[in-house]
Amino acid sequence: MREPADLLITDCSLMTPEFDILDNQYVAIRDTLIIAIGKAEEIKDKYEPKEVLEGRGKLLMPGLVDAHTHTCQQFLRGRTLGEYPMIWSRILVPFESSLSEEDTYLGAQVSCLEMLKSGTTSFAESGGVHMHKVAEATIESGLRGAITCSTMDTGPFIPESMLASSPGEAASRIEELYRAYNGAGEGRLRIWFALRQVMTSTPALITLMADKAREYNAGLHVHLAEHRDEVSYCLQNYQKRPAEVFDQFGALGPNMLAAHNVVLSDGEIALMKERGVKVVHCPRSNFGSHGFPKTPTLMQQGLSIGMGSDGAAGSSLSLFDEMRVFRSGLHAFWGLPIFDPVVIPAHELIRMATSGGAQALQIEDQIGTIEIGKKADLILIDINQPHISPTHRMIPTIVESVNGSDVRDSIINGEVVMKDRQVLTMDEEKILYESGRALPRVAVRAGI
Length: 448
Fold this sequence. Notes:
The chain is an alpha/beta fold. The protein has helices spanning 40-43, 87-97, 101-117, 131-141, 167-181, 203-215, 228-238, 242-248, 266-275, 283-289, 295-300, 319-335, 346-360, 394-401, 428-446, and strands spanning 3-15, 21-30, 33-38, 47-54, 58-62, 64-69, 120-125, 144-147, 189-191, 193-195, 220-224, 256-260, 278-281, 305-307, 378-382, 407-412, 415-419, 422-423. Strands 1, 2, 3, 4, 5, 15, 16, 17 and 18 form a nine-stranded mixed β-sheet that branches. Strands 10-11-12-13-14 form a five-stranded parallel β-sheet. Strands 6-7-8-9 form a four-stranded parallel β-sheet.
């Protein structure tokens, strides 16, 4: 008698945790988990699946993890390219402050739709306004997410509506979101604590957010060492660099997801390694505005590194695009001057976008690699296309040639959420129509 399975993926190529490619693989899934991996003779006659997903001509790999994004900025697409710094204080934060609940919900829907269609299955949202609407859109989409509220209590350039009246008020807002949504969506949604960045946080806020994250056993999402103004601010006000300031007030630790990390000193890198901080790079955002991070040094020091899109304001949400740009940029900046063609190996870029992101979200024991016992968060790429096949080596080809539009099927928590490019959890036509109608009024209200 055959064992029951919810889903059977048949005859696919498969990326192993060691970045080898195995052909003619079958994968059985039950109760959200991968329960078997093997050849046809090992799997096909052993399981009776409710659903079969054809894998011939496709590569099965872990779903991508966008470890730093801004769903509330989806309606800023095409607006920030060519703008002078500081874009975040002049445009991004004021724009967020103008959003209504309906705007936030629609933007989050479009963001979730874009992530699903480009291979992302999990994301970390660093916080905006009306985050209960982002939570609702995430639950509906089927995505896995760690979300929080934008948390600031100081800054002369921050709109009053975005500033917490006190650290306690900021904490209460996140605690309310936590009580309402943490663990929702069959456990896919988790609520974190946050600090927008050191320049907009008083010492009292930093200390409280760090304490609350530990109290709730939650992550702490921050922007860190993104630009030189941040370093200058910390040196003038604390006589320390940004990572050192966070450490002074008890925030630097293994539950911290630190996004950007462009202008870290070697001393800060060593401190972050000691504290177990999870680093996340946002290549296109960083290259376009702030510079080149010391990624080779971070890798040599053994820090966990994830990858993020930083939202749609300046680019798409495709992590395949991020990998490709990151490889070219780091090779040009760090590799070419010393004749090192593998300063950033292809498999390390894929690791950042998968298991590195899983580590940043603190769920590496659940997702990020294809292994028996892990959650079935998976994507199938159509590799039977002239820009992908034939190839001598699939791993470099993924980095250099695969696009988000090559993702044919997506599975999250064991459920097929996209099949043959059709998203099954969301009404794509309706969302695009309603968001297109909303954009002009959003722009007028925001003054952009």
